[in-house]
Automatic annotation (TrEMBL):
Keywords: Methyltransferase, Transferase. Pfam families: Methyltransf_23 (PF13489). This is SAM-dependent methyltransferase domain-containing protein. Signal peptide: none annotated. It comes from the Bacteria. CDD domains: AdoMet_MTases. One of its GO terms (biological process) is methylation.
Amino acid sequence: MKLLKSVIHRFGKWYIQHICRREYEDQQFRRINERPVEFRFLFQQLLRICPTRVLDVGSGMFALPAVMKQCGFIVTAIDNVSDYWLSGMFNRHFHVINDDITSTRIKEKFDFISCISVLEHIENYNDAIKNMFSLLTPGGHLALTFPYNENKYIPNVYKLPEAGYGQNMPYICQVFSSDELNKWIKTNNGKLIEQEYWQFFSGELWTFGEQISPPRQVGKHEKHQLTCILLQKNSDEPLTDN
């Protein structure tokens, strides 16, 4: 048994090294995406708040939960592996629990939840937000990033003729607005702590027009296509009618 474990370990190590080397050698520059903005916002909030237990929703194959763990946080990572990922998904950086946030089976409470560029792909987004708030401890924080337009909601920006890419994606890409944000805050006993607005494209909506490099942080009433948001769950329980 000891010899078998040693052989399996050596093979697994060789295979991971092979995959990493192949990805390294196959690198091609396409564009700088939104992750530097989103991850910078997330880690800025983690540094400021210093939570203990963190839940990462929609981890996919990213190394993000592993990096948060290396920073000292106790991290749980979840993703809808069986339904969202058509051919399955494996994260070689961190253990990801197969869980659908719209009907979560997670019972543990968390001081901080991150949901980075995930919510726009969830059709039942209101239940996703509701369940994320339910998994927060009183006073806990929720960091969200997604395509955003202050004035109007778009069910799937990839289906619009002006979209610069995404037409063949197997998932939707919603653009949320202040109406959805205000509803989430009101119905989930939350409050807005911080919101950033970012312009990534020259056009009105996400993927419209030419990409701007580097992206610009702008004001609320300037042209923008993405937002980074920090919400907090109120520590007091909401009043209910008897």
